[in-house]
Structure formats: structure tokens, C-alpha cells
Amino acid sequence: MILEKEKIAETLCSSLCAEVKVLERNGQLLISTPFHFPDGDPYILYLRELPGGLIRVTDAGHTMMFLSYENDVDKIFAGNRNRLLDRILSTSDVELSEGEFFVDVLPSEISNATFRLSQAITSLSDITFLNRSRTESTFYEDLEDALIKIVPGIEVFSDYIVPDTPDASAYKIDYRIEGKETDLFIFGIPTKDKIRLTTITLGHLLRHQFEFESISVFQDQASLAPSDLARLSNVGGEMVSSLAAIDDLTRKVRKRVAHAVSQG
Length: 264
Fold this sequence. Notes:
Largest sheet: 6 strands, antiparallel
Distance between the termini: 72 Å
Strand order of the largest sheet: 1-2-3-4-6-5
Helix content: 25-40%
Shape: elongated
Number of strands: 11
Order of helices and strands: HEEEEHHEEHHEEEHEHEH
Number of helices: 8
């Protein structure tokens, strides 16, 4: 048998042990691991002695600092991101306090705690990429948050059902804002399925001669098929390539809203 359990276990142990080092820096013990953030920075975990013989394996706030470089960390504690955070912490048995992720264990459990905490940090860093590679649910949260900031004091209606149109509930509008002359409908488009649904919805409203203006906001316009984009453009309306193009979205929305909005 080629796969011999003892030899494989010995090989794995020696390889992993070679990549995990305990170092002393500035009077502190730290664990250097083979795990890295997406930008190449390594995870560095510290060891602290606690009363009662326990050891705290901690990231010393490094993970939260990394998340803050390109993200609004407050968003991690709201909506779907917060639910993901809670799930990660509970499944890995990792704690969070004042920006520090840690595990308190007996000295004999340091190895297990190191890998648990590293696994949790990997999952936590993935949350930040929801800003660049958004899941559908958080994309809508962020779009609504952006709209509220763009038109402060003006109500933003979500899942709006257009009155006096056939099968209105089947053609919901993601967001409706009172326009200067007519309703402003805003569609979030995170997927190819949604661009097709938006095209159908706009076509339905046009066929029934409903007066409105529209803006379609993409998660990533470049990732969608040109044929789908062409069909959407045929039914009219403005487009914004992504939520990163916030100035473009702001200009197009404020041009159409019913009341003057401060540009500050």
C-alpha cells in the first residue's frame, strides 16, 4: 500500500512544524505561521500569559487593522456581514473584544488554538472582499446605504410595487425615490439573472406606458455579457458600472430627485 498512515502523518507533522515558528520580539512571544492575508502580509499571533495558568493566543488587533485599510470596518458589525462574523466566531470558538481576536487555552492546547484562530482570520478576511466581490445580499445593503447618503431627508422606498399596472407584484422595483417630474426607479444588478429580470421589468412598465426614469447600478458591469447589456440599453435608462463609481451614481441621482440636495 502506497499510503502508509504513519509515514504520511510524520511527513505532514514535520512539514507543518517547519513552517510554524515561535519567536521572541520586544519581550513578547509570537507565532509565525505559513498563513497570509490576500496582500501577502503574514498572520502574526502573540502568546500572553493569563492568571490561572491559561495562555491567550491573540492577533493583538492586527486583523482588524488589516480590514480597515480598504474597508469601512463598521460595516462588518451590521447586516449580513455581522451574521457571518458571529457564525465564524462561534464555529471556531474564537472571541472578539475591543478589536482583538483571541483564544484562551491551556499550554497543551496552543497548537490547536493557533490553527483555529488562523482559520477564523482567513474567514474573517474574506468578509472584506464583499466590498469588491460582493454577494447579492450585501450588494443591496450597500446600494441602499449609498442612496440614503446621496439623498438625505428624502425617503428611499425598497421593493416598491408600481400601482395600477398588471401583475405589479411580479415586477417589483428595487428602490424608488420621488423624482422632479416622475418617479426615479433604481435597480441593483449583481448577477446575469438580475440584468435579465431588470430588462423584463423595464419592458413591462414601458409597454403599459408608465412614466418613470431609471438607473441601473451594477455590481460589476464588465463581468456581464454584452448581449445582456445591449438588451437592457434598448429599454432605456441610465447605468452606473459599479458601486465604486459613487460620484457617477451621486450625480445621476441628484440630477433627478424632487428636492434640492446639499452637495456637501
